[in-house]
Amino acid sequence: MKKLLVLLFAVTSCFTATAQSYIGYFHDNYAGVQSVLFNPASIADSRFKTDINLFSISGSVQNDLYGVKLFDVYKDGYDFDSEAIMTPTNANNALINFDIMGPSFMFNIAPKHTLAVFSRARSVSNFRNVNGNLVDEVKEGLDEASDFNLNAGSPNGVSHSWGEVGLSYAAVLYQNNQHFLKGGLTAKYLQGGVNGYLQGKNVEVIFNENTAFPELSTLESKGEITVGASQDFEENEDYEFDSSATGFGFDFGLVYEWRPDYADYDLSNAAPADNNFRDLNKYKLRFGLSVTDIGSINYKNARQDTYNVTGIVTEGMIDDAENLYDFLNDNYTLVSSKRGMKTNLPTAIRADVDWNMFRKFYLNLNGDISMVSADKLNGNSIGDRVSLTPRYESRWFSFYVPMTWMEYSGMQVGSGLRLGVFFVGSGSILSNVVSKESKAFDFHLGMKIPVYEKKFKDTDGDGVIDKEDACKKVAGPAENNGCPWPDADGDKVFDKDDLCPDTAGPVENKGCPWKDTDGDTLLDNVDNCPDIAGPVENNGCPWKDTDGDTVLDKDDACVEVAGLVENKGCPVLDADKDGLPDDKDGCPLLAGPVENNGCPVVNEQTLETLRVEAKSIFFTSGKATLDNAKMGETSGRLDAIKEILKNYPNAKFAINGHTDNVGNAKANQKLSEARAKVVMDLLVEKGVNPANLTSQGFGATKPVKSNKTAEGRAENRRTEIVYLGNL
């Protein structure tokens, strides 16, 4: 039965060594080339210049039949059959994965483009829909079995090992403010190894024990089984490598990153030392979606046979069989046989969401869904899985704790770490420490050479990074290789810009001292007439005599009219005899001081007269019309005011109206404004220049007496003339 054992081992090895690799590790931003195995888009815009995998390995096993206290298994005397906790059903399952990654590397070929090349050896085994009760009946062998009658159903087992050489390309597809999208594609050349499978269809098994003659115990069965292998083990029981068993595979994926702080990474604001922020993780949320392992391997030398296993055999016939094919051909009916087959890869959809909670702390939710039917003949597949993984990550250190629900084996908790060139972890180690019924175990470890993107060093902070700076500790411009420009004469004008590099001079004269061209003791930079000598007090220019009367303009009161020296250069024309020539006198017919432009000065006596006259202008109660009963007196008052104002042609006066507080405030305001306007208009009619007047009302806001008495209110109802100053 050696050939039988070889084939059965290929199918049932899934019990001994989960289909997912590197659980908890591959979503780390520093997972490097390993991350391409799960989503080829992940390597674009990575934190690596290059990442070189020297060697890494991942293995896992899971099932829903046997549960053990994992660390007791390795103790001396442990009896797996008696001490393991079994949970048999009509459809038990098991799954194994073994993944070795050989020399592999990734590197950036441009800021937005990345390549990866990897080599990989893989083995995935599945055993599905096995009646666990049958396993329990025959685990000691048929010699120890008692009568049983079981429906074996449609068990389906497959084991496949192969090698891969992959080329991955990833690029940034879209970048706009906070939105960032990248995509990736992997093409894989596949080399087949060993493939074996066994599938039943409606199989029923009845065992009748003969205690007197055990070799005559019978095994009655019915149904159909299909047996296949990557080579014809009936003709040659030794495994032979088949170089013609090849194929191609593909992976593709997308990664979207939400970067709300995109303005902090604006390349237009990046200093050279920032290295375009390539060393920083910039997202708040990352979403990844990929489809992996699309493809198959063509085994041209494969053999597949289907048998009708309806019949009865004895235990002795089973013991005498030399190999599986002899046993099947001698005792059952061969329904069909064919040569050559294509074996699929374990195609799966993978998704993850990564949340940067705070600084270097992340929370990742990821999962896998198999795209291969569990009933497919020779159908390799992974197990469905969901993981929630908090992690801390930095450039040289990461720690992660994956919490995973696995198809068949349920919940498990593990941990792992990455420390520089070394990483190790398990997605189930913590739960296996405490569980008495572990149904899964996995591990991963590896060594690599990471070369990270990093911020460049700029010791002197001059914007020239140290590796390009000829003066690393002294700031200097980039055009001088980071070194300061020399300044031989110490005048703060660099020699490259200094027209007099050996003689100190001001910056505005390009480093040269100023000259005194006209010799008037004023340097040219402050001399308004650098070519003509002049006094210092006239900024180096000679004094002018515009009117040619020998009185220099600075001393001439009539600069443009010739006059006498004794009259300060002015002719004697002063009609009002106030000391100002008429052409300079604002009031040539009215004497006034020079400081008031020759016009009379409004004095306090004049203002008092105006106050008295203005108070005697009477209006009809509540109206802006003059009181007819007192019209004669009012007209006389206005004439008196007119005569006073005409004496001050350059003065500005305001006619202000006031009321008491009786009645509506808004009405009082309008009334005061109207009365002031009436007085102003009457004065203009009498010949006062309107340019000398303005009018304004204040309502009851500026009382001069208390409004509580009639006398006070009468005083508050008034018109005032106020001097505002000269025009």
Automatic annotation (TrEMBL):
Subcellular location field: Cell outer membrane
One annotated GO biological process: cell adhesion
Domain of life, source organism: Bacteria
PROSITE patterns: OMPA_1 (PS01068), OMPA_2 (PS51123)
Region forming the signal peptide: 1-19
Entry-linked PANTHER family: LIPOPROTEIN YIAD-RELATED, STATOR ELEMENT OF FLAGELLAR MOTOR COMPLEX
Annotated protein name in UniProt: OmpA family protein
This protein's GO CC annotations: cell outer membrane
GO molecular function annotation: calcium ion binding
Keyword presence, Signal: yes
Keywords for the protein's UniProt record, in alphabetical order: Cell outer membrane, Membrane, Signal
Pfam families: DUF5723, OmpA, TSP_3
Domain OmpA-like: 606-727
